[in-house]
Structures are given as structure tokens and as C-alpha cells.
């Protein structure tokens, strides 16, 4: 995953991975999202995609678009490495739920999840 994030950031174009973050979810937060696992998916791990919180509506929209572009690049890099992955946006818990479970989101708010097959 780390290499996919690095690769996605080096692709030429208007957008890079910032201002979003990719937060791997551990055992303490997995229970929040395991019900969202793609149908037919085997073992895998979750990465939460967050975007920096902004109070200005136009800026929020722009930052969200940038984070979706970055997530798409990461997912394409994973696919090029032969790693099955899926995007999940529907039903993603809010920042308060992740923080209550111990996830370090810094100043980010959830945009979606990337599920990655692990074998």
C-alpha cells in the first residue's frame, strides 16, 4: 500500500495525494467497517481515505475531488501490482466513530474506504 501511495503521488498531472491521507485500519477499528466488505471478497485489509476538514463549502468540494483523484490513483497502482481492491463510500462511519475507536485521523474527515485483498 505504501508503495502504491508513493507511486500515485509521482504520476504527472494536476493532482497529488495531498490534502488527503490514507489511514490503515487496525484491529481496533476493523469492526466499524467489516460489514462493508465487498460481496465475495476474501481476506483483506482496509485503508480509510480522509480529507482535510475545511469550513468553506467550495473548498470542501474541491478538496474532496482531490482526495477522490488520489484514491483512484492509489487503487490503479494497486491493480497494476496485481492487488485486488475496491472502493467503498456508502455507509462509511463518520470521523467521531473512528476517533472513538482509536483511529488517528488528525484533522481529516472520512471520504471513503479502499479494501485490499491480502491473499
Automatic annotation (TrEMBL):
This is Nitroreductase domain-containing protein. It comes from Rubrivirga marina.
